[in-house]
Predict the 3D structure of the following.
Amino acid sequence: MPADEAGLKKAMRKNPHLLEYVQEFVSRHRSPPEFHPVVERKMGDEQQVNVIYPIGDPLFVHVFSTGSIPISYKSVQPPMTPDLQPKYRKVIQQVYNKAVYMDPHESVVEFEKNLLQLIDASTKISESSTDGDGKRIFGDLFTEPKIFVTQHEQDLIKYHAKLAIVLSGPLEPLLRDPYIEDIHCIGHDNVSIVHKIFQAMPTDVKFESMEELDNYVRALSERIGRPASMARPIVDGTLPDGSRINLIYADDVSVKGPSFSIRKFAEEPISITHLIEWNTISAQEAAYIWLCLEEGMSIFFCGETASGKTTTMGAALPFIKYDSKVYTAEDTIEMQVPHKVWQRLATRDFGPEESRVDTFSLLKAALRSRPNFIIVGEIRGKEGSVAFQAMQTGHPVLSTFHAASTRKLIQRFTSDPINVPITFIDNLNVAFFQAGVYREGKFLRRTMFIDEIVGYNEALGGIMTRTIFLWNAADDSHMFKGMNNSYILEEKIAVKRGYSDKRKIYGDLALRTKILEEMVARKIFKYEKVAEITKEFQKKGVSGLPFPV
């Protein structure tokens, strides 16, 4: 997509701070930035980057690098000038003084409205910004004089007050940016990100002091309802926008001071067609998962940290039959299930011991809830044994799990603290493995292999498995090794479908592969649209598709 010069001019007219920033940048680097309303993945292939993109007025992002200057991330927003800071502090103090007389707000929108009203009540617009006594306000309740400010100064005060009090302070640009995956803060002047397009890079975001970072981390923990303290220095939770956060508060635990990591929440889930387009998974592999989920197979999506296993599991959920009852149990709310009958539950790890609810308890409750599918955000401990009990009683289970191979998966499940008997392991049908790999200096996520769990071999005393898909690193392709040789397709799914000729199941696989390839070719990437097409196909067959195959 070519640079949008007209869009940049329009944005600079509306946002003087952007105009000032661009002019200063060009004067220093002699290289005008390109303005792109949408950042495309192919931009990440460029050796040099000089891109500005909007993240919601008045915020913009500038990503810049040359051969000699490493890539960096700059947030462009209305500046708080040194001259304005004393007035800002006076206004905020008056706002706090007046706020005690107002009714508590019931929503963020009302909170913001009240804040702006209090700023209006504490300031007086003047052509000159010289301080002086203004009118008294709210009758005799308040005796503080208004602060004289220009209209521009009041706008800046409102912006920074809203940023600090209602929104997320210094992190707001990073949390608002839809192209960021992860945010990492290690010390008050070290905030870095992992960008979906431009990979890892430092940012200009920082806290003025360790004390400011300390206060920010405590406020952040209180916002998620899990206050951090010296007694409870490590906190996991979910931000209001759904992002996952891990806080480490005590300086004797986090040596460089309070630190945190945020895994950004995508407002719209990534679809399976997106993953196919990015070659994270092939259309044929996705079609295989489709058949498995449609017929109630249990699958574990495995990989190391940041391998994308949770994203892939979420992208596959539309393949579950549309009329199923889905039960989710998560430590941190992440899953977005497109089914109407969805029982969504989360753990509670704070409060008195008797009031806490862990994943183990949620899974035991699931067995009494008669779900068609049980989804566990991640299996780490003893809840794994309940997951296998659920499979034994006919409840398909999906989960993510930290393991790099089927052998290591079995080792972990048959050892402490999970302790599933090895003879029970074949209740799991499929082990799906994904990893992060580097190709030509770029970090990519790939489905490494898919293994079928064939069964327990008493003579060998172990589990027999069969690899049916394998990633070829040489040409970045996904090989299907299971043609006419898939245990799950032939001995499980074909049997459930009543096929006398079990090889007919490969026709079902080919049809679903074509459907997915056609969706990618037609650029059908919206999660809801993919789910809708899948649902109509399940209800009506090929006649329910909006395109021929």
